[in-house]
Amino acid sequence: MNATEKTLQTRTSLRRYADRPISEEERLSILSAAMAAPTAGNMMLYSIIEITDQAVKESLVETCDGQSFIAKAPLVLLFLADQQRWHDFFVHGGVPKMCDEHGLTWREPEESDLMLGCCDALIAAQNSVIAAESLGIGSCYIGDIMENYERHRDIFELPRWTFPIALVCYGHYPDGERPPRRGRLPMEIVVHRDVYRKADEKVFDIMEDHRRLWSITKIGAPAENGAQKMYLRKNGAPFSFEMSRSVKAAISRWLGEEPKDHD
Amino acid sequence: MNATEKTLQTRTSLRRYADRPISEEERLSILSAAMAAPTAGNMMLYSIIEITDQAVKESLVETCDGQSFIAKAPLVLLFLADQQRWHDFFVHGGVPKMCDEHGLTWREPEESDLMLGCCDALIAAQNSVIAAESLGIGSCYIGDIMENYERHRDIFELPRWTFPIALVCYGHYPDGERPPRRGRLPMEIVVHRDVYRKADEKVFDIMEDHRRLWSITKIGAPAENGAQKMYLRKNGAPFSFEMSRSVKAAISRWLGEEPKDHD
């Protein structure tokens, strides 16, 4: 294994950071790695908001399902899918008028543009995470940033065609301490050949057997097995209902379906 | 710069590959790197389809906006957001019955779950791209895989709660040949501090000045500036209209709004 492969294989989500700031040089390395990431048509359909305001970090603990370590992370970056910059550039450059004069359709950002922006944002985020790891800086993704859309929109002054797809916390590993690396499902379950192979009894047995992957050591009522416990803890948990509501609200606004009281 | 940072900084999209297969060892390194990627709740909400069938690779040239190099790539991986595996596991484990008996809501995958699955899939994809690069294997993302949803669904037998978010081609760099690295917008445009800063005249001027980033050497009618040219080439081009239609169709099916003739 080369150094990069080792970096990819040894990284694990870090939620407790050394009490040591990230230097300006390290910060720039992390951001430069993000900026070097592949992007659709080289358009950079994303933005990064660096969160330096401690009060905002503390609000995020609350809006992101109580993950208290966010407030203690020396570097916190919010990755946005961003079609606003190009939309505004098009408008500024007179594209709607050009379309009008030449019988062309003026297409504003739709669902597909949201997805493309998310691609760019996430690919950039992962580059930053890997650069950080290579510098001895751990990181943790916070998917909960997709909850409470309206509050995040207000806090970060997000315009219509941006979408907060990932929050990432970064900090040095506490000296001599590294969380144990969690296992993964076997490759034959995740990697398919030529066509999608639906999970069968054998896969379900493996998933049930691999409960430790999800830290399920014992089953508690009303759950009677690993599937039920994971549902209660994840897809059926209050944060998932909130994320569902919030993402619907964000997409509605993106598509211009929002009630009038929101700009 | 350490070796990993160099790998991140020197990678560029590769669309012409050496006439040399990817070894089994290299293939496993690439897939293992994907599998090691961070994933929400360690649930691995993605699947990878390795496309080995030459006829399918050739179909993809057509369905992905005529990118002929897809057919010549020694390794082609399709990354899917995948909530199907967990959904089926939940059903198999009797979650709907448990919900019913305990007055809980049985929540099937929604938009938020699609987004979470896309996060996992893209983070895994980028890990694989970086591992490949560290082995001297170039790669190229094909966002056009989001077009022609119905055809891709049929080719890959995609069940309802999967979404093809990224296709990646991999192959060795042709000997002694490396495409020049394309520049990026300046960091101050992409990175914001604490709040989103909308692009202004100054940003638009920089974007117009940076036309070479998007290989705009001259402007052709009806475009009169870089913004208009990029709109015609990207957001207003036929492939973008197709992607818009296709993603709407995929999301409709995900949400169960599909017409009856599709399973």
What key phrases describe this protein's structure?
homodimer, Nitroreductase-like (chains A, B), NADH Oxidase, 5 strands, 263 residues, 4-stranded antiparallel beta sheet, alpha+beta
Structure notes:
- The structure is a homodimer of 263-residue chains.
- With 263 residues, chain A is α+β, with helices and mostly antiparallel strands.
- The first copy, chain A, has a domain at 3-181: NADH Oxidase.
- Helix content of chain A is 44%, strand content 13%.
- Chain A contains 11 helices and 5 strands; from the N terminus they run ααβαβαααβαβαβααα.
- Chain A has helices at 3-10, 24-35, 54-63, 84-92, 95-101, 111-134, 149-156, 187-190, 201-209, 226-233, 238-254; strands at 46-50, 75-82, 137-142, 162-172, 191-193.
- Chain A has a 4-stranded antiparallel beta sheet with strand order 1-2-4-3, with helices on both faces.
- The mean pLDDT of chain A is 96.
- At the A-B interface, helix 1, helix 2, strand 1, helix 4 and helix 5 of A face helix 1, helix 2, strand 1, helix 4 and helix 5 of B.
- Chains A, B: Belongs to the flavin oxidoreductase frp family.
- Chains A, B: Residues 9-172 form the Nitroreductase domain.
- Chains A, B: This is Nitroreductase.
- Chains A, B: InterPro entries: Flavin_OxRdtase_Frp (IPR016446), Nitroreductase (IPR029479), Nitroreductase-like (IPR000415).
- Chains A, B: GO terms for molecular function: oxidoreductase activity.
